[in-house]
From TrEMBL:
Cross-referenced Gene3D superfamilies: 1.10.1740.10, Winged helix-like DNA-binding domain superfamily/Winged helix DNA-binding domain
Domain RNA polymerase sigma-70 region: 23-87
SUPFAM superfamilies assigned to the protein according to its UniProt record, in alphabetical order: Sigma2 domain of RNA polymerase sigma factors, Sigma3 and sigma4 domains of RNA polymerase sigma factors
Keywords associated with the record: DNA-binding, Sigma factor, Transcription, Transcription regulation
Domain of life from the UniProt record: Bacteria
The keyword Transcription regulation appears for this protein: yes
Organism from which the protein derives: Nocardioides islandensis
Family in the record: Belongs to the sigma-70 factor family. ECF subfamily.
Name the UniProt record assigns to this protein: SigE family RNA polymerase sigma factor
Domain RNA polymerase sigma factor 70 region 4 type: 119-168
NCBIfam families: SigE-fam_strep, sigma70-ECF
A Gene Ontology BP annotation from the UniProt entry: DNA-templated transcription initiation
GO terms assigned for molecular function: DNA binding; sigma factor activity
């Protein structure tokens, strides 16, 4: 048939249960990864994502364009992560602080990789909230500037600005990880 339009993916026509189930199967991991980058706790990240899916399921009939459900989920995950961070800040303010042991570096590459990853997460955590969110969405979830702008409710120009500033701050904070360790031996 000439001019026939291909049908939309099956989940667009499905009921709330089926649609959310298909979204869950396709995007659970990436949404947990996004939340984890923001809250730095796997259990909390999983709870945030689960809450987002429950919210989408409950509001499925009110979603005008089922294709925007993923953007809605991302926005819910970012907002839920923010909320959890605010809550944790209040809890930490009133709880005794436990000393954090220094990272132990060994000769084993797995240990070094773990230390590098921890350094990146620490540097990411020190970024201002909006920069951290943009960096996580751009480099860990691999969203375009337009998708990030939609997810966070900001302009594409703001996305570019936050990404640029965040990347510059990360480069500065992680400069010691970006140099060749062999260079120090030749000095």
């Amino acid at each position: 048939m000439a001019g026939a339009v291909s049908p939309a993916p099956a989940w667009h026509e499905a009921d709330a249960d089926g649609a959310v189930e298909q979204l869950y199967a396709a995007h659970w991991r990436s949404l947990v990864r996004l939340s984890y980058l923001l809250v730095r706790d796997l259990g909390t990240a999983e709870e945030v994502v689960q809450d987002a899916f429950v919210a989408v399921h409950g509001r499925w009939n009110g979603i005008r364009d089922p294709q925007s459900a993923l953007a809605y989920l991302r926005r819910a995950v970012v907002n839920g992560s923010r909320s959890r961070l605010r809550h944790l800040k209040v809890v930490r303010t009133h709880a005794e602080r436990q000393p954090v042991p220094d990272a132990v570096r060994g000769a084993d590459e797995a240990v070094l990789e773990s230390a590098r990853r921890a350094s990146v997460l620490e540097a990411l955590a020190r970024l201002p909230r909006r920069q951290r969110e943009v960096i996580a969405l751009r480099y860990y979830v691999d969203l375009s500037e337009a998708e990030i702008a939609e997810t966070l409710g900001i302009s594409r120009g703001a996305v570019k600005s936050h990404a640029s500033r965040g990347a510059a701050s990360l480069r500065e904070a992680l400069a010691h990880h970006l140099t060749d360790p062999g260079e120090a031996l030749h000095d």
